[in-house]
Design goal:
heterodimer; A: about 250 residues; alpha/beta; Rossmann fold; four-stranded antiparallel sheet; 10 strands; B: about 260 residues; mainly alpha; binds adenosine-5'-triphosphate; binds magnesium ion
């Protein structure tokens, strides 16, 4: 479904990803963890074609896309949604218009139908009736949720989340985690979730991949990762768990 | 020392050409998208917005330009007994050069800067990336409507500029310079032809396109951070103005020979 084969990427001669290979199958939720600056966002940006890899192959729905032109990529992007690390809401538009954006651009729905979809998606993320608000009137967590509603407005088959719970209070991150899980269940989406939040990672993941210094150092199911004897992995998940008690309890 | 200095000049020349190349590519891409039907509602909305934004400054600038032009020409022309041609001279200078160029310069400072600031802040907050991920071409969605509305709105502003400049000139001529109202208006009718105005309007279409393309290009390539947007905005105004003055020379050669 989604596959990276020996992908390398660098900026201005500085290597960021080194021979990264990763495979996510249809309907699976893959969580990518790793320290700040290790290249997690870069992987997502490669997958949606915002960046081109300097080497390697990227497969999406059985197509090798690393050399696709913008126009060809757009055909695939209609089936993809992305929640940006800093939400990236269109700040000149209302919340409702943000969520409706893809519907207006890519469907022939009437305004009534669009309004209905927008209402339903906002209800899903717990923001009923906030259509008329402007993004600068929202808290960071609310923006994240609008961004999520916008990403799933067209019922995409693939959703990419860049730190969906960062900067949210524990209750809200639990809500978002549940949302990711239910989105996957209801819409049968293939998801990739980049996160620092181990509690959320263990909750939503089918498999977890850990990236360190631009390389995948571990990849496996939740229990495999928890029992991994890789010291990097242990340090990362325990360092995080010591901050959140319930995660340690579950572990 | 000298070598370093030359290196620096060389680098900025290269950068200039490189940027020039990207600007041309952007312009061609935008023109390519013109074949598809643009979103007229958005274009109209933009035009109203741009027009309302810059009309007051354009009016003020041109009122005083018309006035000062008349003061200077009237003073000299009366010495040579040519007061009967003051109106015509002011009107032609206004229609061919002053109104188009000054309106465009004001427009670059006002609208070009606003375009760069808006698109630049969209760039640094990843909104441009969000557009692309949502399968929307930023050039078609952001650049094309701005290009059309600038290229259409600047001539409209220029018409206002001509009128208000002529009125300013008329006021000074009749109240301070001792030229009769009849003589001022008659000389306009005698000397000016329609192409004096239409040529200027053609120029402003080009200038409007320059302001839009440069504004969008600087915004889309704004460096990270809030200060990057500020830099891009200043750069946008300066570059637009330089290109307006240079292209004005060649357009004048083309239109008025
Ligand atoms: N456009 C860019 N130009 C230059 N360097 C970049 C660019 N984007 C990312 N980088 C560099 O690539 C590296 C990885 O960045 P990336 O954003 O993928 O990290 P990340 O794992 O998402 O980190 P975080 O958890 O802080 O979001 C960083 O060192 C960053 O400085
Ligand atoms: Mg990141």
């Amino acid at each position: 479904m989604i596959k990276l084969v020996n992908v390398s990427m660098g900026f201005n001669g500085k290597s960021v990803l080194n021979n990264v290979s990763l495979e996510v199958s249809q309907g699976e939720t893959m969580v990518i963890i790793g320290p700040s600056g290790s290249g997690k966002s870069t992987i997502l940006r490669l997958l949606v074609g915002l960046l081109k890899p300097s080497a390697g192959e990227i497969w999406i729905s059985d197509q090798e896309v690393s050399h696709y032109s913008e126009d060809r990529f757009n055909n695939l992007r209609r089936n993809m949604g992305m929640v940006f690390q800093y939400s990236a809401l269109f700040d000149s538009m209302t919340v409702g218009e943000n969520v409706a954006f893809g519907l207006r651009q890519h469907t022939n729905m009437t305004e009534e139908e669009i309004a209905r979809v927008v209402r339903r998606k906002l209800r899903m993320v717990g923001l009923s009736g906030q259509e008329e608000k402007m993004p600068n009137q929202l808290s960071g967590g609310m923006k994240k949720r609008v961004s999520l509603a916008r990403a799933i407005a067209l019922n995409p088959g693939i959703v990419l989340y860049d730190e969906p719970t960062a900067g949210l209070d524990p209750m809200m991150s639990a809500t978002i985690s549940r949302l990711i899980a239910s989105t996957r269940r209801i819409l049968k989406v293939t998801s990739i979730v980049v996160t620092h939040d181990m509690e959320s990672a263990f909750w939503v993941a089918d498999r977890i991949a850990m990236i360190y210094n631009g390389e995948i150092v571990a990849c496996g199911t939740v229990s495999q990762i928890k029992e991994s004897d890789n010291p990097l992995v242990q340090r990362f998940i325990n360092g995080m768990a010591s901050l959140g008690n319930s995660a340690r309890r579950r572990a | 020392m000298v070598v370093r200095f030359l290196e620096k000049i060389g680098r900025s020349v290269i950068r200039g050409f490189e940027n020039g190349g990207w600007v041309i590519i952007l312009a061609l891409e935008a023109l390519g998208h013109l074949r598809r039907r643009p979103n007229w509602r958005q274009v109209l909305h933009q035009m109203v917005h741009l027009g309302v934004d810059s009309l007051p400054i354009v009016m003020l600038t041109m009122l005083f330009t018309g006035m000062v032009m008349t003061v200077q020409t009237a003073h000299e022309f009366i010495r040579y007994g040519a007061q009967a041609s003051v109106g015509g001279v002011v009107f032609i200078a206004m229609g061919r050069e002053l109104a188009p160029v000054l309106t465009a310069v004001v427009f670059a400072g006002r609208v070009g800067a606003a375009i760069t600031a808006e698109i630049g802040s969209m760039k640094v907050t990843e909104q441009i990336d969000a557009l692309r991920v949502m399968a929307t071409n930023p050039v078609a969605y952001l650049v094309v409507p701005r290009l059309i509305s600038c290229a259409l709105m600047l001539p409209v502003l220029c018409i206002f500029a001509n009128v208000i400049g002529t009125v300013g000139g008329y006021l000074v001529a009749t109240t301070f310079a001792g030229i009769s109202s009849f003589s001022y208006l008659h000389s306009i009718k005698m000397f000016a032809v329609i192409s004096d105005v239409t040529g200027g309007l053609v120029k402003t279409m080009v200038f409007g396109g320059i302001v839009a393309i440069i504004g969008c290009h600087k915004g889309l390539t704004a460096p990270e951070g809030a200060e990057g947007v500020g830099k891009a905005t200043t750069g946008s105004v300066v570059t637009s103005m330089i290109l307006i003055f240079i292209s004005n020379y060649f357009l004048s050669l083309l239109l008025y020979r």
